């Protein structure tokens, strides 16, 4: 049985509507063309038989074959060079931008067209094309029909795909299109694969060479509107581009990752769907976008959150929403898929939306506080009501247990990070009270804030081990407590915090700079390593922080992408990819190194 490539083998394509993953072997193994959290037409990532589109030299991966990849500057247009015994060829891949889209128009009306352009560089190389679409995560095998222009139409269920290859006459097979052709030095062949809905408008038709040039210009124009003046500028700019690529432009929501069900441990069952937008990530995302000088993105993301939350009563605000604000993201298993390297189940949807997560209001209100000057002295009615409602909800419920930042699926507990986020809600609400109208009650809120703080310091500190622990009454260390100085709950120089940072680094860290979330965590969690960088800066250990940062960024793949976690034994990337939080952590850590006193 064919084994899927390593997670780090994939490059990321985006049109800020959907995204695709293309491997070093030239195979596009993931594409949900309608939108990021829509249904996949290529899902080889999760099962070898669930659809792909390979374009590469015949015998790719064999003796004498070498691959080099890089993004075109300031873009998510990927250029892969295949060196073979017979010559070299470049394949440039992109998801097409709308014609004329510039700056913040990128992605709002993307045509849902995948562009692949082949260019001969030297010698004469025989190329192979294998197009095997399998809509609905591999449940459907489409009918294929030859087209008068030499293309092929694939149709099944709600999906229509049209593949065209300039100058090549493709022929439909029973369930796929296979074709071989030769490319000489200087020869250029453009291909476009267009998605359409069976009962909607027909798939777009583009000139692939013109569309590639247009798309490259759109990305580069977008980056020109953003500046960054801190340390590690190339890393920060690239991570900001990845975040833009994970942004669903129509709403402004940022997907946590492109994929579903890539495992935290090979063969394990912690495989979740991360193609939605988490309110928990809200403040971190806002901070990263602001650092990377993306103020318009922060405004649009904020408007999305306000609309998604809507009016609410006593029920907890969900930790995540669909990219257009959908609340019910009920989870189901795709039992027909074997999972990435036999890691089951494959999940579509995420039942974490049902959980009580007490930290969510703190992340949202912290973002409001961060943008308070940008938002103005008088908040709009919807924003004011949202802040008031979230604050009162926390005042009434902070003492309850929840599922914690890691979204455990066992018993609820009094997680320290959740309580600190409740403190953050009340503290920031007090600071925003003069913008919240007559219903604001800063004196009462301050009393609740102080009560939460006293409770955390009393119940969260474990004198026996000399550290703050993951939950009240627990002796289990948890890397989430590194958020205490990052949120300014407690200075990093406080003796208790210094002791906690040292304990977490010693007990949960590795010589390679990776940090696990808890003792039994099977892999290093990249965001936690970046939190540790920030904590080291705030304790005055600047050189150690920089050395750790530079070790951690070394775990990116050859085109600068991070998944969620790193295998401790092999250094292999694990979890969904690319992972927004990992790139957010990089941006925020780089800025902390640049500006140690930044808030």
UniProtKB/TrEMBL annotation:
One GO MF term: hydrolase activity
UniProtKB keywords: Hydrolase
SUPFAM superfamilies, alphabetized: Six-hairpin glycosidases
Pfam families the UniProt entry points to: Glyco_hydro_15, TREH_N
Domain Trehalase-like N-terminal, residue spans: 3-180
Domain of life: Bacteria
The keyword Hydrolase is assigned to this record: yes
PANTHER family assigned to the protein according to its UniProt record, in alphabetical order: TREHALASE
Protein name (database record): Glycoside hydrolase family 15 protein
Originating organism: Micromonospora parva
